[in-house]
Amino acid sequence: MNRAWAPEARDLQSAVRSSLAGLGGVELARAAEEKAAVRVEQLRPALESLGVLELDPLGEEVESSAAVLAVRACGEVVAPYPVTRVLSVPAAMRPGVDALYVVDGCAGFLEHADLFEQAIAVDANGGGVRRAANRSAAVRAPLDPFGAAVDLVDGAGGVAVTESAVLMSYVLDAFWIAGALQTVATDAARYATQRRQFGKAIATFGEIRWRLADIAVAVDGLDEMATFTWFQVRRGRASIADALAVRLAMLEAAGSVLRNAHQVLGAIGLCEEHDLTVVDRHVTPTLIRPFGQGRTVALLVDAIDRFGYGGTFDVAPGDGSIPTI
Amino acid sequence: MDLDLGDPADALRARLRELLTELLPDDWAGPFSDDPEVRRVVRSVLDRLADERLLTIDWPVEYGGAAASVWESTVLREEMWAHLEPRGPQYMGLSWVGPTLMAFGTEAQKRTHLPPIAAGRRIWCQGFSEPEAGSDLGSLSLPATADDDGWVINGQKIWTSYAPIADWCFLAARTSHDVRSKNRGVTIFLLPMDRAGISVRPIASMMGEQHLNEVFFDEVRASRADVLGEVDEGWQVIKYVLNHERVGIPRYARDERLLAELAETTRDADPASRADFARALVHARTARLLNHRAIALREQGGLTDRAASGARIASIQLDQEVAGLVLDILGPAGLRPGTDGLLSHAEDVYRYARSATIASGTIEIQRMLVARSLMQEAKQ
């Protein structure tokens, strides 16, 4: 076992962090909500200058590592540019396709879809590839800050998206959310040591410490699941069951971390001037699209029955006869 | 980046499964029974593993081990636990008593204890917890009072697993009171359980036989030769022991086996149970990965409380989740012990899982450690 990321990937992650910090960190997300053009005027050039948007997560290992660590760095500040959608496009399909979304039936709104001329959508249920058409401008909503209305239409030119690209799309989402949750964890822990109530730091209270512990375990668990699934996808060992598993891990981790962090921070964490509120609102589209926890579990049950599930003791595939939940 | 455990570890897993398939009867329900046949099975497993140098696979060669990699050692622990620990209580001697003796023992102590531990022929019990010192181990107060010939020990230990069948006790006692630190003044004694003045009272518990006991010390004599490490500096030994225990039992391995065996039954279960089953599989994988991370960090000398206790929290919560899920899906049929494979022991698994968040450091203590670690990181 060798758990070390390639140094070049680490270096890029650091460079992305520095660049995003220079642009204001989470402040950039606030600014983009006020002025959507910030995404293409400030953020996209920064990511392009670092070569992030050209990375292929299904390419060589160093490049793939760099891709997922760069995505994680973007997640740490909920960078308002859909780097996961751009990097999900298989290298062979670029530049003819500039963004790839995984959808569940009709899409309605897709985040940042207004930024792309040639976005495609892959149906999570095997419904084929469609083209995102009739895009509106981003229509700001608290829990969907950059959602743009789209119609999904046939006419994607007969393109076929490989299964590994779809699986990697789930992995990229997990890394992005893992980055965001790490920021929340650090903020909550720092606040707990600074905020005083009843004459002492609230970090001295067991209830607060237990919440911090649950946050840390959730963040670390998601990081491990994301890394493991990335590793399995790269080696051609993953099925959609593994991708849905990491999505479920992501959804559960986000639920635990955000709920506990809000409780630690109290009212201040609900204020727009605090990063927790911004992170919470900006991660929500990724937690809900293409589907939330209930639907993820239902699809996972079906996928386990069809493909089995690897472990210290493997769960064998079934005969595919169980009724879908 | 390579997350595979490696070919030697994979080969060892395959070999262990062959051995256990050969040696364990179909109705194997674990080693904690007075049934002579169970004892014979345990003995046959221990002898066979010793013959193949698998009992001490991760010990240094100079002590009869094979200096195996940490991942081979991990696989051994996973397979043993997944198969209801057929080594019985010998696992304690092999996992932490032996290595602690190597680190702190005198040559005489090593000669006395390591060969029988390596052969799987010496059962130890751990005399740490006291009625007034559980999670707060530093408050242990069992007095060992010095006199001209050594020490006289009077008092009590509690929750001492395997005490009725143990050959030796790894005992922590207070030999002095240091006002600067309650962790000073503790000394570790290695005492044979048949020494005059030691008596054991089993405590009936929902976990079953052997798990919980009281050990009483009535004018028990100890000499300098019984001391492990330095007098009054036993806390260093305890820290070493706890460090070995930190990553803990690979509970996830048994849970993954339970889930794999439960899969077929689950296909006929209601949708809610199937959803819970899928969730448990994800949690089991997460727990395994967190444990492997902690093991890797320990190997590199960079193990943090966040990683060690975090892995443990994930494991013990998983243990209770899976135990509850198995019983829930099996329904009334799971309430009574059976003899048909692992799932027929669902009720035993369930009872034992109640202790998961209590034994070897409560989940509250683990959470305290993780939180402290996270706050330290946040300050940086």
Automatic annotation (TrEMBL), chain A:
Protein's recorded name: Acyl-CoA dehydrogenase/oxidase C-terminal domain-containing protein
Domain Acyl-CoA dehydrogenase/oxidase C-terminal: 172-294
A Pfam entry, by short name: Acyl-CoA_dh_1
Top-level taxon of the source organism: Bacteria
Annotated keywords: Flavoprotein
Single GO MF annotation: acyl-CoA dehydrogenase activity
UniProtKB/TrEMBL annotation, chain B:
Acyl-CoA oxidase/dehydrogenase middle domain boundaries: 125-220
Keyword terms: FAD, Flavoprotein, Oxidoreductase
Cofactor(s) essential for the protein: FAD
Organism domain of life: Bacteria
Record bears the keyword Flavoprotein: yes
Pfam families: Acyl-CoA_dh_1 (PF00441), Acyl-CoA_dh_M (PF02770), Acyl-CoA_dh_N (PF02771)
Entry annotated with the keyword Electron transport: no
Domain Acyl-CoA dehydrogenase/oxidase N-terminal: 11-120
Every Acyl-CoA dehydrogenase/oxidase C-terminal domain range: 232-374
Similarity section: Belongs to the acyl-CoA dehydrogenase family.
Name of the protein this chain belongs to: Acyl-CoA dehydrogenase family protein
Lineage: Bacteria, Bacillati, Actinomycetota, Actinomycetes, Propionibacteriales
